[in-house]
């Protein structure tokens, strides 16, 4: 086994200009990630003995984390090897089995080196956040030595029982979230956030990469099918709701399959028209060609295309191929009565808008919370109702009997759809306050406003995370205004410029600012807070 391990290494291609062109051709957007790769190339060019960095790409599914790893290897001119870590729960998968066991073998790291044949490849540790743990050990703990630049020059596999130098290997890990990665392992990696795409970026990616790929896979040409950008936008907004482009790619695959059927039928029809009914054979015998005789479509590829080519895919064609739209813009309808507000949430799949609904009824002052809420979110709801009760006179909020004690003979029910999805975190605090203020005042919340922020008992609005993904979710939903904590204003620099142009941002330092922004005319009628210049 030792004789099979590579001692040779591949020579890095350190042309930064060529690397920039290659990265731009393979992936659209992702500027922060591309910048980090080019920085590594520049330093590697100046210092040849540079140890390989440990990078971790964190982002929603379908944004291209795995494919970027391949592009990095292509850019450097190195061999590429992917190690799938999802569901791995035995540390021997990393370190190898001791030779005393029947069927023992080296771990995935050593096996990967044997496969690529060089000692400086690019290793992609895919789905590192989905490592398991069992009685056979913790594979995340086994990765600590592998991913530590100060230790991995002397990595020992249990099967080999001989140290091997991993310091020249470029390790790239991918994850959907850092929440499930052990802190010790997280500390050894350089985290690079890969956010979701905007609608404009998805359209560009679709026409640069996804559609040409699907056409090639289905044997079609651009002369046979035409998908306008307006149709692509319809697919994005009505048939997919995701941060990445994985579902979008599948929709284009379904469209190409439907068009392939039309093309094949047209070619078969042309072939039947051009086929002679009979031929005179040797000895005067007549050989009749039967219509039922099978014919390969590949044999008719040079025939004329059906007259309706290219097939135009418009909204009506989408309904025939993909069925009725899966998603509709329902924001205005759901905010057509008091007691409903729109919040912004972050998930490992990207940002999402979140509705909060409230109702009141006669009772004994109880607060009911539904929607699979975690402890932090439940505490935010109790904070919100306590702050409103203490400020009821200031805002002229009363219960059904006209009392300023909002829970006097009154029960409150707060619901967070969808009920089957687990939710937690403090960022819904401002949304809960706005929802309850709407309920007790009888006023509608603006249907074009979404908000996020943690609250305190004194009415302060504290910063929250995931701001870029949340803003992109509001933009995807067609909202026009986003209320954010004042201390999150700096995070807007990461939001693409065209998204900032389409949205107005209101920064809030206290709940007074939030309520004034959420209701037309203020709450109560006061001067509106200043609108942050979107052209940051």
Automatic annotation (TrEMBL):
- Give the record's GO biological process terms: protein catabolic process; proteolysis
User: What does UniProt list as catalytic?
Assistant: 427, 470
Q: Which InterPro entries match?
A: AAA+_ATPase, ATPase_AAA_core, Lon_bac/euk-typ, Lon_lid, Lon_proteolytic, Lon_Prtase, P-loop_NTPase, Peptidase_S16_AS
SMART domains the record matches? AAA
Q: Does the keyword Nucleotide-binding apply?
A: yes
What Gene3D superfamilies does this protein map onto? 1.10.8.60, 3.30.230.10, P-loop containing nucleotide triphosphate hydrolases
What ranges does the record list as Basic and acidic residues composition bias?
270-293
Q: Where is the Lon proteolytic domain?
A: 335-521
Query: Annotated region Disordered: where?
Result: 270-297
What keywords appear on the UniProt entry? ATP-binding, Hydrolase, Nucleotide-binding, Protease, Serine protease
The GO terms this record gives for MF are: ATP binding; ATP hydrolysis activity; ATP-dependent peptidase activity; serine-type endopeptidase activity
Stored NCBIfam families:
lon (TIGR00763)
Q: What family classification does the UniProt entry report for this protein?
A: Belongs to the peptidase S16 family.
Q: Which PANTHER family does the UniProt record give?
A: ATP DEPENDENT LON PROTEASE FAMILY MEMBER (PTHR10046)
Q: What is this protein called?
A: Peroxisomal Lon protease like protein 2
